[in-house]
Write a structure and sequence with these properties.
This is DUF3499 family protein. The chain is of the alpha+beta class. The protein has 2 domains: 31 residues; 64 residues, no CATH class. 29% of the residues lie in helices and 22% in strands. The chain contains 3 helices and 7 strands. The strands form 2 sheets. The protein has a 5-stranded mixed sheet with strand order 5-3-4-6-7. A hairpin with a 2-residue loop joins β1 and β2. The longest helix has 25 residues.
Length: 121
């Protein structure tokens, strides 16, 4: 096979093959990233816990609040995914309030929209 200056090898254009492969790699990695974002098989953020996450915890220093919600569709670096055991045992600093907005919380059983607990001082 001879190689000419036009980028052809044996009648096939190598530039196209490389760009096709690069595009396929981008498509594959993009679809895998989207699949990971949609996946609800995230694990608990607590160290040494590999249980599937079922809740998302977020907080605000300004308001002294911690919120527990059903597991969000997309993960985010500013929130923490927790398994049921760790979500049920969340404790907040003195003076902070914990707002449990999960659908399977005690509030849902009472027909309320959330349960709020204020940490005793």
């Amino acid at each position: 096979m001879s190689r000419s200056g036009s980028g052809h090898v044996g009648g096939a254009h190598q530039g196209n093959a490389r760009s096709d492969r690069a595009q396929a790699d981008r498509d594959y990695s993009g679809s895998r990233a989207a699949e990971r974002r949609r996946s609800t098989s995230r694990v608990c953020a607590r160290p040494y816990c590999s249980t599937a996450a079922s809740a998302t915890m977020s907080y605000s220093y300004n308001s002294g609040s911690v919120w527990l919600d059903d597991l969000t569709v997309d993960g985010h670096p500013m929130v923490h995914d927790l398994c049921s055991l760790h979500a049920d045992s969340v404790s907040v600093p003195k003076g902070w309030r914990l707002v449990d907005r999960r659908s399977d919380s005690l509030a849902a059983d009472d027909g309320q929209s959330s349960v709020t607990h204020l940490a005793a001082g």
